[in-house]
Specification:
6-stranded mixed beta sheet, Deoxyribonuclease I, Chain A, alpha+beta, single chain, 27% strand
Length: 333
Amino acid sequence: MLSISLICYLSIFIPPDMFWPAAVVGYAIPALVCINVGLFLLYIFGGKISWQFLVGILAGLPFIQSTYQTNELKEVKSDSSFMVLSYNAKLFRQKDRYDKFSVNSIEWLIKDSAKIKCIQEFSYNTRYKPLDVVSRFEAAGYNHHVFDVDLIHNPGMAILTKYPILEKGIVDHDSRSVNNMIYADILIKRDTVRIYNVHLKSMRLELHEYSEVKKAQRNYKKLINKLRFGAIERSAQIEKLLAHTKNCTYPMIICGDFNETPYSYNYFQMKSNFKNSFEQAGNGLGLSYVNKPLRLRIDHHFFNDDISVTNYQIDKQLYSSDHFPTRAVYKIK
């Protein structure tokens, strides 16, 4: 058990493009941590100590920290604090429907109190007032940076803010994909903060394909390939993102739908360069993606040393998407 655990734990140090199976075995890390803890407790209750399982637990501590947090919520009100909301809006469609828009989710986002909002799978329709999302945000006092994809209903990404936008741009441009990265330099009081809105490559896992034994046997290669190529493509995107951040001297926040669990090479690449808001100020498991039976934390906030985070929460009021909004309160040092 110890050797299997250590091999899986070490997968976070192996780039997917060098050895792609490492990206797949990483999904087993939570189960291995739980097994090591459970077996260690069984030995303790039996009056014995298993050093093998103890080492497995100690080696897995970074993953426990990434999985569960008990931070104290702090309410800090100052001129230098501000809230950032991130949300995969699922093109503003109704739950499990792509033929009908969810006007309620649009209303909710416009009324939400966060002055900076990063929306993935953003969509709007200028020909119909309830769905003319950009104009409605403008009327509510929001400046905007919208990236359009050359597909129906203008899908894409957006950074919406009540603060002035000094500069804006695109990190990874693909006019045929909603999986991109954009940024905006925002003036907050006397400080400039760079906000990155990130939507990394999706694996597009259709769970019904694997719900039956015969289907699973027929499609397991398809599943492995999705996991493989998804991890490799996200790794390339993160390389572009990290290279882009090197040229920025401002305080930075990077948030969005990373499509990465906290047990992967790609997640730890981000964590080695930035702090994670959930780990610094979150509580519980921080599960942001719910698509039964899957419940995952794949929506993340990261920030650099020029900023501190005082509060991080998953907002579970909005159910139109399979993602919940994530929000954090930051303070410029």
